[in-house]
């Protein structure tokens, strides 16, 4: 895992426009076919929204429309049609020149309240150092210098390595995968970082169906409850179902102390390892 910070959004003289240089460290995909990781696009949009409004994100949802390649620049235009006393309703349009890449809708703000409780239960699991390291994420279709190089992933529950090696087959009984995920040294766990981690839902699709699969995000929705300081994020992932070449799942993101920081959900396009891999247009 790289120890260098890898994510930096750039401001402009216009407080409603930001830009993101698309480096390999923000991309996934086969060599020569890399594209901006969807979670990185959502994370950049969240930082742009928070930078423009000065408010924390309550929820944000991204629809992925096209692909941004390494070396390109994604411009992020923030629109805030409604800004109330406590809440702003806003959106981001991300584009490379005149090609729209993603659209993000969001609500931001906070309200004075003494109420704080969570009903989602954190799984009882071993510490990260007691869990097996997942050394290769989609190794059959990725560049070793891509975004996954900046995360350490440890498996609490899952069979990803066995599936990649062809040693495990058959569908999962419950579609549940549990991972500890830690970002590169120097990257704080904040709302943007959680948006990137939330886009790991596709990692569980192969586990659920029992076959090596590349899953590309169609969307990503994240809802923030309470972001607290933590080194590791415990990701409780459940794939709800697959059909017609698409899969659907969710993730609960907990801090090391058991605090539910966020919930996320996604729909993905599935491509099996033995099928021709090419991104849709």
Number of helices: 4
Report, as a whole number of angstroms, the end-to-end distance.
32 Å
By CATH, the superfamily comes out as Acyl-CoA thioesterase, double hotdog domain
Going by helix content, strand content and strand pairing, the class is: mainly beta
CATH topology (fold) name: Porin
Order of helices and strands: EEEEHEEEEEEHEHHEEEEE
Care to count the β-strands?
Answer: 16
Total separate domains: 1
Query: What's the story with the biggest beta sheet?
Result: 14 strands, antiparallel
What does this molecule look like?
The protein is mostly beta strands and 281 residues long. It has one domain (10-110, 135-272): Acyl-CoA thioesterase, double hotdog domain (Porin, Beta Barrel), CATH 2.40.160.210. Helix content is 13%, strand content 40%. It has helices spanning 38-53, 160-164, 191-198, 203-209; strands at 10-11, 17-21, 27-28, 35-36, 57-64, 73-83, 87-96, 99-109, 132-133, 151-157, 176-183, 213-217, 219-224, 233-243, 246-254, 260-272. The strands form two sheets. Strands 1, 2, 5, 6, 7, 8, 9, 10, 11, 12, 13, 14, 15 and 16 form a 14-stranded antiparallel sheet that branches. The protein has a two-stranded antiparallel ribbon with strand order 3-4. Strand 6 and strand 7 (87-96) form a beta hairpin. It is globular. The chain starts with 9 loop residues before the first strand and ends in a 9-residue tail after the last strand.
């Amino acid at each position: 895992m790289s120890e260098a910070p890898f994510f930096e959004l750039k401001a402009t003289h216009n407080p409603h426009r930001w830009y993101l240089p698309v480096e390999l460290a923000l991309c996934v995909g086969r060599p020569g076919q890399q594209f901006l990781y969807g979670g990185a696009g959502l994370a950049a949009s969240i930082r742009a929204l928070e930078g423009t409004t000065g408010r924390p994100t309550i929820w944000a949802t991204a629809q992925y429309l096209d692909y941004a390649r390494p070396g390109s620049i994604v411009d992020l235009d923030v629109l805030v049609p409604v800004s109330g006393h406590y809440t702003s309703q806003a959106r981001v349009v991300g584009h490379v020149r005149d090609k729209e890449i993603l659209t993000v809708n969001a609500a931001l703000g906070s309200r004075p309240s003494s109420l704080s409780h969570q009903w989602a239960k954190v799984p009882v699991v071993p510490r990260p150092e007691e869990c097996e390291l997942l050394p290769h994420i989609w190794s059959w279709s990725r560049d070793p210098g891509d975004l996954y190089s900046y995360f350490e992933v440890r498996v609490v529950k899952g069979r990803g390595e066995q599936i990649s090696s062809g040693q495990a087959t058959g569908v999962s009984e419950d579609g549940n995968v549990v991972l500890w995920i830690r970002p590169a040294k120097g990257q704080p766990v904040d709302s943007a970082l959680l948006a990137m981690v939330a886009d790991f839902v596709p990692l569980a699709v192969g586990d659920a169906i029992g076959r090596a699969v590349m899953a590309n995000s169609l969307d990503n929705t994240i809802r923030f409850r309470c972001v607290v300081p933590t080194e590791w994020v415990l990701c409780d992932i459940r794939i709800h179902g697959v059909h017609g070449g698409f899969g659907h799942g969710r993730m609960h993101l907990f801090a090391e102390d058991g605090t539910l920081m966020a919930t996320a959900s996604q729909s993905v396009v599935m491509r099996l390892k033995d099928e021709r891999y090419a991104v849709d247009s």
